[in-house]
């Protein structure tokens, strides 16, 4: 199992740091880094007891790395699956803020490590050894790309910054909010407490075409999901850069599936509903 | 004692008190003929710091003949540095021995006067014995360099290991022996000698000391812009960090971890352990560090029951892996040499009373077990399918 990558372009480096931050900002203790010859994946799958949020972030390596070499477990399973603590990774990447080059390599030191040497602008080398756990192949099936849920409503999201503002305000009033949307481009965020009910309405958001939609769904009927506000905040926190496309699939009373598409990164986020 | 500190010097004094407060809870104040000494020592007496302000800083300093030291908590006086800088015009320090009170009077803008009366305790003179000028290794650097170095280490990190060779200095985080190695993230940073104002090495050594106190000194040095000198000899003997100006002199004496193994080695004149070669950042050979972590072979005896084919295959694998392992050993040379030398034992010597803590038991040197099988089960499963 071998892996090594190098970034020497500062723009790519900044880009990579930003993207990795999305994943490292999460509140979980561990995340999975899956490496394939073409892509890097940051995967999160929380236990249902802890909220059951899962995330799937896909980065095309060619857009970031100047050099990228890997050799998986075998020829057929040409992949590497590692478990890392996002906290450690975030700290290692913090060093990148004034770096001009970066290498990532899988090494075996006191334990398997992702060794990340960075070259700072004053030609100083800082090396971080981030301990990783190699995930055995028998567990890989847990980290496959999640299926697209059989959603009731699919809708484009309003600008994330606006959404974040609204959600942050709502957090002050309640821990749960109801997200509802329909196929006529309308989305509402609602909170209800004993004292106050607040609803924010978004209109004309548009519904993405998903091919022929055989459903006989009434285009004005709302699909609803009641969410833990913190989960939604967590998702919005990592999104400083507006994606090319942001959309939301709703399974009525079950699940919210958020998709963000950048040119070279795609991020999927699943938030289960709470009763 | 009766003295007045004015203008920018108040800030210097306050910063000094703040960085001393990183060391211990109590401050020892001793008026001397050549100025005012502020000292602090930590509870385990493994760190000591002293600032000596010359009379130029403390205008109208009238020192009584009393050479008594006074122990007190002063931090509360200079609680907020930010407001202090903006508002305080002068600070008047007065000792009233009759009432056993040390009075700090802060004269602020708009005629505001704040008076702090602090009670104190008389104490013996506190003085660490150290001789920094005879140290084998002496360095001097701008505070910025060390601030930029320390920033890469997490705030929770307790100790840091500093190693020197003829033209380089390494900083590494020190991982405690009992910490789980698979959890510890290691950070390493290398500075070349030309980043220092002064760099002289007589013995190539590595020492481990507390980061907290260094951070305290950096706080002071960064605000005053004074270069920091580092003096040290060998593991187990203290490292002295100092800042010097025409009007003030600050010394931080920190215990270093004594290194049993190294001491033995030193007797046989072979203490200079090879330091890692500088990372040649831009050109390196992929094969020099790629590693073989086999998830594919199954060396468990339980496998014997399975087909001979599996065995043949696994032995083939292991020979391949053995070859690659050699490469990885090259890469991990630094790591292994460290292991053979043994991580320093975590025993600080007391600086002041010469009492050395009982010799630590030999710690287990952990040779890197080659071919550690990670995820050994996976192949077995695929073969059974």
UniProtKB/TrEMBL annotation, chain A:
<dbReference type="GO" id="GO:0009314">
    <property type="term" value="P:response to radiation"/>
</dbReference>
<dbReference type="Pfam" id="PF04005">
    <property type="entry name" value="Hus1"/>
</dbReference>
<dbReference type="InterPro" id="IPR046938">
    <property type="entry name" value="DNA_clamp_sf"/>
</dbReference>
<keyword id="KW-0963">Cytoplasm</keyword>
<dbReference type="GO" id="GO:0031573">
    <property type="term" value="P:mitotic intra-S DNA damage checkpoint signaling"/>
</dbReference>
<dbReference type="GO" id="GO:0033314">
    <property type="term" value="P:mitotic DNA replication checkpoint signaling"/>
</dbReference>
<dbReference type="GO" id="GO:0006289">
    <property type="term" value="P:nucleotide-excision repair"/>
</dbReference>
<dbReference type="GO" id="GO:0005829">
    <property type="term" value="C:cytosol"/>
</dbReference>
<keyword id="KW-0539">Nucleus</keyword>
<keyword id="KW-0227">DNA damage</keyword>
<dbReference type="InterPro" id="IPR007150">
    <property type="entry name" value="HUS1/Mec3"/>
</dbReference>
<dbReference type="GO" id="GO:0030896">
    <property type="term" value="C:checkpoint clamp complex"/>
</dbReference>
<dbReference type="GO" id="GO:0000724">
    <property type="term" value="P:double-strand break repair via homologous recombination"/>
</dbReference>
<dbReference type="GO" id="GO:0035861">
    <property type="term" value="C:site of double-strand break"/>
</dbReference>
<dbReference type="GO" id="GO:0044778">
    <property type="term" value="P:meiotic DNA integrity checkpoint signaling"/>
</dbReference>
<dbReference type="GO" id="GO:0000723">
    <property type="term" value="P:telomere maintenance"/>
</dbReference>
<dbReference type="InterPro" id="IPR016580">
    <property type="entry name" value="HUS1"/>
</dbReference>
<comment type="function">
    <text>Component of the 9-1-1 cell-cycle checkpoint response complex that plays a major role in DNA repair. The 9-1-1 complex is recruited to DNA lesion upon damage by the RAD17-replication factor C (RFC) clamp loader complex. Acts then as a sliding clamp platform on DNA for several proteins involved in long-patch base excision repair (LP-BER).</text>
</comment>
<comment type="similarity">
    <text>Belongs to the HUS1 family.</text>
</comment>
<dbReference type="GO" id="GO:0005730">
    <property type="term" value="C:nucleolus"/>
</dbReference>
<comment type="subunit">
    <text>Component of the toroidal 9-1-1 (RAD9-RAD1-HUS1) complex, composed of RAD9A, RAD1 and HUS1. The 9-1-1 complex associates with LIG1, POLB, FEN1, RAD17, HDAC1, RPA1 and RPA2. The 9-1-1 complex associates with the RAD17-RFC complex. HUS1 interacts with POLB, HDAC1, FEN1, PCNA and RAD9B. HUS1 does not interact with RAD17. Interacts with DNAJC7.</text>
</comment>
<protein>
    <recommendedName>
        <fullName>Checkpoint protein</fullName>
    </recommendedName>
</protein>
TrEMBL record, chain B:
<feature type="region of interest" description="Disordered">
    <location>
        <begin position="305"/>
        <end position="385"/>
    </location>
</feature>
<dbReference type="InterPro" id="IPR026584">
    <property type="entry name" value="Rad9"/>
</dbReference>
<comment type="function">
    <text>Component of the 9-1-1 cell-cycle checkpoint response complex that plays a major role in DNA repair. The 9-1-1 complex is recruited to DNA lesion upon damage by the RAD17-replication factor C (RFC) clamp loader complex. Acts then as a sliding clamp platform on DNA for several proteins involved in long-patch base excision repair (LP-BER).</text>
</comment>
<dbReference type="GO" id="GO:0030896">
    <property type="term" value="C:checkpoint clamp complex"/>
</dbReference>
<dbReference type="GO" id="GO:0031573">
    <property type="term" value="P:mitotic intra-S DNA damage checkpoint signaling"/>
</dbReference>
<dbReference type="GO" id="GO:0008311">
    <property type="term" value="F:double-stranded DNA 3'-5' DNA exonuclease activity"/>
</dbReference>
<keyword id="KW-0227">DNA damage</keyword>
<keyword id="KW-0539">Nucleus</keyword>
<keyword id="KW-0540">Nuclease</keyword>
<feature type="compositionally biased region" description="Polar residues">
    <location>
        <begin position="362"/>
        <end position="373"/>
    </location>
</feature>
<dbReference type="GO" id="GO:0071479">
    <property type="term" value="P:cellular response to ionizing radiation"/>
</dbReference>
<dbReference type="GO" id="GO:0000076">
    <property type="term" value="P:DNA replication checkpoint signaling"/>
</dbReference>
<dbReference type="InterPro" id="IPR046938">
    <property type="entry name" value="DNA_clamp_sf"/>
</dbReference>
<keyword id="KW-0269">Exonuclease</keyword>
<comment type="similarity">
    <text>Belongs to the rad9 family.</text>
</comment>
<keyword id="KW-0378">Hydrolase</keyword>
<dbReference type="InterPro" id="IPR007268">
    <property type="entry name" value="Rad9/Ddc1"/>
</dbReference>
<dbReference type="Pfam" id="PF04139">
    <property type="entry name" value="Rad9"/>
</dbReference>
<protein>
    <recommendedName>
        <fullName>Cell cycle checkpoint control protein</fullName>
    </recommendedName>
</protein>
<dbReference type="GO" id="GO:0006281">
    <property type="term" value="P:DNA repair"/>
</dbReference>
<keyword id="KW-0597">Phosphoprotein</keyword>
């Amino acid at each position: 199992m071998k892996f090594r990558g190098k970034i020497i372009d500062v723009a790519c480096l900044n880009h990579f740091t930003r993207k990795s931050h999305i994943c490292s900002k999460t509140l979980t203790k561990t995340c999975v880094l899956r490496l394939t010859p073409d892509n890097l994946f940051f995967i999160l799958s929380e236990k249902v007891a802890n909220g059951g949020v899962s995330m799937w972030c896909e980065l095309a390596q060619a857009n970031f790395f100047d050099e990228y070499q890997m050799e998986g477990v075998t020829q057929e399973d040409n992949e590497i699956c590692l478990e890392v603590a996002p906290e450690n990774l975030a700290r290692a990447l913090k060093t990148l803020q004034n770096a001009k080059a970066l290498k990532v390599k899988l090494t075996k030191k006191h334990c398997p490590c992702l060794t990340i040497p960075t070259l700072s602008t004053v030609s100083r080398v800082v090396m971080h050894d981030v301990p990783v756990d190699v995930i055995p192949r028998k567990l890989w099936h847990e980290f496959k790309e999640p299926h697209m849920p059989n959603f009731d409503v699919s809708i484009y999201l309003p600008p994330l910054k606006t959404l974040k503002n609204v959600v942050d305000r709502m957090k002050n009033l309640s821990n749960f909010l109801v997200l509802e949307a329909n196929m006529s481009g309308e989305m509402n965020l609602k909170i209800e407490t004993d004292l106050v009910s607040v609803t924010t309405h978004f209109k004309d958001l548009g519904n993405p075409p998903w091919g022929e939609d055989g459903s006989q769904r009434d285009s004005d009927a709302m699909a609803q999901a009641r969410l833990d506000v913190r989960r939604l905040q967590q998702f919005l926190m990592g999104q400083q850069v507006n994606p090319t496309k942001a959309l939301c699939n709703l399974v009525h009373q079950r699940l919210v599936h958020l998709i963000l598409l950048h040119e070279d990164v795609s991020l999927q986020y699943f938030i289960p509903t709470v009763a | 004692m009766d003295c007045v500190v004015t203008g920018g010097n108040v800030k210097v004094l306050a910063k000094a008190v703040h960085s001393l407060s990183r060391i211990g809870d109590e401050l020892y104040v001793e008026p001397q003929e050549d100025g005012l000494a502020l000292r602090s020592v930590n509870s385990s007496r493994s760190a000591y710091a002293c600032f000596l302000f010359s009379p130029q800083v403390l205008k109208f300093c009238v020192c009584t003949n009393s050479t008594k030291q006074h122990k007190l908590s002063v931090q509360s006086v200079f609680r907020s540095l930010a407001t202090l800088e903006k508002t305080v015009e002068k600070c008047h320090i007065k000792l009233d021995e009759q009432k056993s009170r040390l009075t700090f009077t802060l004269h602020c803008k708009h005629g505001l006067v704040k008076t702090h009366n602090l009670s104190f305790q008389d104490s013996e003179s506190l003085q660490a014995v150290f001789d920094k000028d005879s140290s084998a290794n002496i360095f001097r650097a701008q505070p910025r360099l060390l601030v930029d170095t320390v920033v890469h280490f997490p705030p929770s990190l307790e100790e840091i290991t500093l190693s020197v060779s003829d033209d380089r200095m390494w900083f590494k985080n020190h991982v405690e022996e009992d910490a789980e190695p698979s959890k510890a993230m290691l950070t390493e940073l290398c500075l070349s000698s030309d980043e220092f104002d002064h760099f002289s090495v007589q013995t190539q050594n590595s020492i481990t000391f507390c980061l907290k106190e260094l951070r305290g000194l950096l706080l002071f040095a960064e605000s005053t812009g004074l270069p920091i000198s580092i003096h040290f000899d060998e593991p187990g003997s203290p490292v002295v960090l100092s800042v010097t100006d025409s009007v003030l002199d600050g010394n931080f004496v920190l215990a270093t971890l004594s290194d049993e193994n190294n001491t033995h080695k030193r007797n046989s004149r072979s203490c200079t352990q090879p330091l890692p070669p500088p990372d040649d950042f831009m050109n390196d050979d992929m094969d020099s560090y790629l590693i073989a972590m086999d998830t594919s072979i199954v060396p468990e005896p339980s496998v014997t029951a399975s087909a001979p084919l599996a065995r043949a295959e696994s032995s083939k694998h292991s020979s391949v892996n053995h070859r690659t392992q050699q490469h990885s050993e090259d890469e991990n040379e630094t790591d292994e040499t460290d292991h053979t030398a043994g991580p320093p034992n975590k025993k600080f010597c007391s600086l002041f009373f010469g009492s050395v803590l009982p010799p630590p038991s030999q710690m287990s040197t952990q040779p890197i077990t080659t071919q550690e099988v990670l995820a050994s089960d996976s192949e077995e499963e695929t073969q059974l399918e």
